[in-house]
Amino acid sequence: MPESIRSHPQPEQSGQTLVEFALVIPMLMVLLMGLLEVALALNASLAVNRASQHGAHVASTAGNLGGADCLILDAIEGDLGVPNDPDAITEVRIERTAMAGNLSYARNRWLRDGKTECTYPDGTTVEVPYRQAEYGYPEAQRCPVLSGCPLLEPARSTVDNVGVTVFYRHDWVTPLNGMLDLLSPGGSDSGGWSFEQRNIFRMEPVL
Question: Is pLDDT at 56 greater than 70 in this prediction?
Fold first, then answer.
């Protein structure tokens, strides 16, 4: 058989290659978008944990300072870097806890759907994009004294352990949700993930 005839694929082979290509490409796209979504979600989880850790550290150093909650919330807002969005924070909890985190004795809940203005002891003010939904752990009821705070209710024998929990909603950034819905109608309608990160610090003691 002449070389020129052997070098040209038969029409049937070309059609089969196109069909295989058309079948493989969507699966590759779904795989790539899935990897991207997982990477972005992991990045968001790490950023939220870092923000929670920073907020708990601020809480431990602020102690019973007036406006401490605003300091904590402001620190959390500033710690979420691109591509994460502070608007995706749904709630922040500031709690007096056991050091192991298994018990919560009192808490403040802040929802990110309003505005609150705080005044610090030096007279300066700051506005945070949060609304207080629960007020069970006011700043004045926090104990930063190493020997305890017998006049508080309940009395403390040493400094408080303060925990900060950040709740975050990570929405998908690619069309993956829509593609999965095409493959399995009604099988994927979440559009993302919701997760929380919590860190606990012992309050910096004063004598």
Answer: yes
Q: How far apart are CA 93 and CA 167, in angstroms?
A: 8
Q: Please tell me the distance from the alpha carbon of residue 160 to that of residue 133, in angstroms, as a whole number.
A: 22
Q: How many helices (H) and strands (E) are present in the chain, helices listed first?
A: 4, 7
The Cα–Cα gap between 70 and 92 comes to: 11
Q: Which band of pLDDT confidence, cut at 50, 70 and 90, is reported for residue 12?
A: low
By CB neighbour count within 10 A (0-12 exposed, 13-18 middle, 19+ buried), where does 1 fall? exposed
Q: How buried is 83 (Cβ within 10 angstroms: 0-12 exposed, 13-18 middle, 19+ buried)?
A: exposed
Express each pLDDT in 94-139 by its tens digit.
999 999 989 999 999 999 999 999 988 888 999 999 999 999 999 9
H/E run at residue 162: strand 161-171
